[in-house]
């Protein structure tokens, strides 16, 4: 049984009213009535004495409608319909955060304003005994300082620098002071991967992992690991907020997720951004100090991409002809039993290329965001049961495959931004036993993004002290 339900049972046995339970459940949250599992008669006294504050979900600000939960102001993302509850023929609702439950003009958000539960001050919360590289050590100290001084900072760590470990000292410091911490990341996969790692390193800390479809089994968790969407349920809850992969979709494109992070932070709090490829707005922001980790944890340089002109690869593949150099690249690497990742710009071109390789008798699999078997295929590729995997940009980040060699077909395509290409290149040489490897951009015309990606990787290597 989880702590929350043990506690609930204890209170119930003692004959306590549900106030403590409601407080626990509402801790730092702002929720719709439908999200609160307590009957009306138990909430009513708390509403009357304003321990539970009710706020309209949609605010009318100078004639503009704003969603209080997600910050959406975009008219095109607001809908309206006839509503039985408020009898209005045009009850407005926010479509932008609909997946968290519908917020409409007549819906209220419930927020706890009563006393806040203190979190335990945990000494020596960190049990991890690994060693940090010198770059990690330096960044780790700065993260700890940011936690102590409640400042904002950016950790710019190259792919494979080991950024999670860089957080450990800062987290330990936060728990020592009884602080509550949020780690927000754009992808569910990362939440699922980080949870057991952090649980192992901080066994005494109560944690929860929140993503679409997950249940909040520990509403009083001191460390919350959540997808950026789930952050929208919190309000002034955290002393330390860490935003992982701040440049990654959907965070960088989505103002509302930035709004959510601002809402979830306490007024006095530390904010730490992590990225291997921060965008320019963040780098130019004057109140955010940047710490770089240009060296990978295994102390080898980042593999630098090389370029191979293919001619009109799309036309060639469609007409069952090889784009220049691709045949050789595949055959040579496969002969050495090296696992190969081939990035392709779109699902359509992925399928075309797959059909062509099939004709040429190259055993392979394909994977993309809408593929229901994507998790199984990624596992099979990791276990070297698939020699060659064709993928869209979904595998550009967050994955590690031992000794993988990587190519991009059609790297001139717009989907391959500078950041995407740096991330893709960052898949190569991550394992300390195989720190080198090939990264090749097969293209029909060099783009700025390709040149800048290469430059960025070379600059980081230079900063790390490699030739
Ligand atoms: Zn909304
Ligand atoms: Zn209504």
From TrEMBL:
Keywords: ATP-binding, DNA-binding, Helicase, Hydrolase, Nucleotide-binding
GO molecular function, one term: DNA binding
Protein name: DEAD/DEAH box helicase
Superkingdom to which the source organism belongs: Bacteria
Segments forming domain Helicase ATP-binding: 144-296
Stored PROSITE patterns: HELICASE_ATP_BIND_1, HELICASE_CTER
Biological classification of the source: Bacteria, Bacillati, Bacillota, Bacilli, Bacillales
A Pfam entry, by short name: Helicase_C
Annotated Helicase C-terminal domain residues: 325-467
One GO BP: DNA recombination
């Amino acid at each position: 049984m989880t702590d929350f339900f043990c506690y609930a049972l204890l209170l119930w046995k003692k004959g306590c009213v549900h106030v403590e339970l409601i407080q626990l459940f509402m801790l730092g949250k702002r929720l719709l009535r439908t999200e609160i599992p307590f009957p009306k008669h138990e909430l009513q006294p708390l509403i009357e004495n304003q321990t539970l504050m009710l706020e309209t979900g949609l605010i009318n600000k100078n004639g503009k409608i704003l969603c209080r939960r997600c910050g959406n102001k975009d008219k095109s993302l607001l809908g309206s319909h006839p509503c039985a509850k408020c009898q209005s023929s045009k009850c407005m609702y926010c479509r932008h955060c609909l997946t968290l439950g519908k917020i409409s003009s007549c819906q209220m958000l419930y927020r706890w304003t009563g006393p806040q539960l203190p979190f335990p001050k945990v000494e020596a919360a960190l049990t991890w005994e690994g060693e940090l590289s010198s770059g990690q050590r330096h960044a780790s100290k700065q993260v700890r300082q940011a936690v102590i001084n409640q400042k904002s900072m950016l950790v710019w760590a190259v792919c494979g620098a080991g950024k999670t470990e860089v957080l450990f000292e800062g987290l330990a410091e936060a728990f020592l002071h009884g602080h509550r911490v949020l780690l927000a990341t754009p992808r569910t996969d990362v939440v699922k991967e980080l949870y057991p790692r952090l649980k192992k390193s901080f066994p005494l800390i109560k944690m929860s992992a929140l993503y679409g479809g997950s249940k909040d089994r520990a509403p009083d968790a001191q460390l919350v690991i959540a997808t950026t969407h789930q952050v929208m349920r919190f309000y002034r809850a955290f002393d330390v907020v860490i935003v992982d992969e701040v440049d990654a979709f959907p965070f960088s494109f989505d103002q509302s997720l930035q709004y959510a992070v601002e809402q979830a932070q306490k007024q006095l709090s530390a904010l730490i951004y992590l990225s291997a490829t921060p965008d320019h707005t963040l780098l130019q922001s004057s109140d955010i100090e940047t710490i770089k980790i240009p060296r990978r944890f295994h102390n080898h340089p980042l593999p630098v991409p090389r370029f191979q002109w293919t001619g009109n690869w799309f036309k060639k593949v469609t007409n069952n002809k090889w784009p220049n150099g691709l045949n050789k690249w595949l055959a040579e690497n496969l002969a050495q039993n090296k696992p190969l990742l081939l990035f392709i710009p779109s699902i359509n071109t992925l399928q075309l290329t797959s059909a062509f390789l099939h004709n040429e008798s190259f055993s392979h699999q394909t994977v993309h965001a809408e593929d229901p078997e994507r998790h199984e295929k990624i596992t099979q590729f990791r276990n070297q049961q698939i020699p060659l995997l064709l993928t869209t940009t979904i595998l550009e980040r967050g994955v590690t495959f031992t000794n993988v060699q990587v190519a991009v077909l059609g790297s001139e395509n717009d989907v391959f931004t500078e950041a995407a290409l740096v991330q893709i290149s960052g898949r190569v040489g991550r394992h300390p036993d195989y720190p080198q490897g090939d990264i090749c951009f097969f293209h029909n015309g060099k783009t700025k993004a390709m040149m800048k990606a290469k430059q960025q990787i070379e600059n980081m290597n230079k900063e790390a002290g490699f030739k």
